[in-house]
Backbone:
């Protein structure tokens, strides 16, 4: 997928759907005293704190708390779950169906 592709992201203000694999957890960490948001500068690439869930993490919040401390030495004291985002979906593309005809439009995930 090229950077200018019209990928769509869908946000869900709900618990993570059952069976959906969680590969990354990120969070907005806001200082309650100053209102500043923590943004990581990784050699010119800016990211929110977070990372990959580990088998020993109790839940998604536990992953964020651990990653925030590992990467930024920040102690998260009060976390609020906001929701989850589906993986990007590429624009509609034509792909041959089981019978070999190329008249079906399907959504394709990036590879």
Residues:
């Amino acid at each position: 997928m090229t950077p200018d592709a019209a990928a769509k992201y869908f946000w869900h203000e709900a618990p993570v759907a059952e069976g959906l694999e969680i590969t990354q957890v990120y969070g907005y960490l806001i200082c309650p005293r100053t209102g500043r948001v923590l943004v990581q500068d990784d050699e010119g690439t800016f990211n929110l704190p977070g990372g990959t869930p580990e088998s020993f993490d109790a839940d998604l919040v536990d992953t964020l708390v651990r990653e925030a401390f590992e990467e930024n030495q920040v102690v998260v004291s009060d976390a609020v779950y906001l929701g989850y985002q589906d993986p990007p979906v590429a624009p509609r593309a034509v792909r041959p169906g089981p019978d070999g005809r190329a008249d079906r439009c399907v959504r394709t995930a990036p590879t």
User: Anything to note?
Assistant: The radius of gyration is 18 Å. Confidence is low (pLDDT under 50) at residues 102-111. The helical segments are 60-72.
